[in-house]
Amino acid sequence: MTYIGRVPEIRYKAARVTPTITGVQYANNDILFDTTEIPNAVLYEGGASKLINMTITSKSTSLFDCIFYFWQVNQSMGTVNAARSISDATMAAGKCLGGIYMNADNLQNNYSNGRIYSINQGYSGFTGETKTYPQLPIVLQAEAGSKSVYVAAIVQSEDSSGNVTPSFSIGDIELIFGLEL
């Protein structure tokens, strides 16, 4: 690529979000948290950024596998701590941007009274041969007139039934998104 004048500067940002969760135990296929805004995830209204890594900090010692879904539009995906039941119309209205499967067994680091999960580029979230592929980066695109994108999560395990019944207290989870703007 040839640039005339100044070479564009690549910018990075760590965006922190605390999703709303309930203070109880979850079950497999429960919604961990509904659509949660990632404010200023892009530099300008209707713009895009690249999600290059993601860290989840948890004050709970419970291991949990889940799928994070990213959305262009703030469209509710259902009730927190209830079984997922997302219709085709809801999926279309939310304008899904992608998903990341988090396998807690492979990603977690226990720091005494909680856990840290790190998802980086090149991480393959599935253990089966047919599902082993990198999940990052993901392009995050804001809707016209907005600089925000949204994330929701569902407790779900591909390989371990023990990682689908986590218990949390309100405020136990923080999400940190590494963005290239």
Structural features:
six-stranded antiparallel β-sheet, globular, 181 residues, mainly beta
Written account of the structure:
The protein has 181 residues and is mainly beta. It has one domain (12-180). The chain is built from two helices and ten strands. The chain has helices spanning 88-94, 104-107, and strands spanning 12-17, 31-38, 48-58, 66-71, 96-102, 108-110, 115-120, 138-141, 149-155, 173-180. The strands form two sheets. Strands 1, 3, 6, 7, 8 and 10 form a six-stranded antiparallel β-sheet that branches. The longest helix has 7 residues, at 88-94. The radius of gyration is 17 Å and the shape is globular. 31% of the residues are buried.
- Calculate Rg over CA atoms: 17 Å
Q: How many strand units? A: 10
What kind of sheet is the major sheet? Answer: 6 strands, antiparallel
Query: Helix and strand succession?
Result: EEEEHEHEEEEE
Distance between the termini: 18 Å
Number of helices: 2
Helix-and-strand structural type: mainly beta
Mean pLDDT across all amino acids? 88
Q: How many structural domains in the coordinates? A: 1
Catalogue the unreliable spans. none
In terms of DSSP E residues, the strand content is 35-45%
- The general outline is globular
Helix content: under 10%
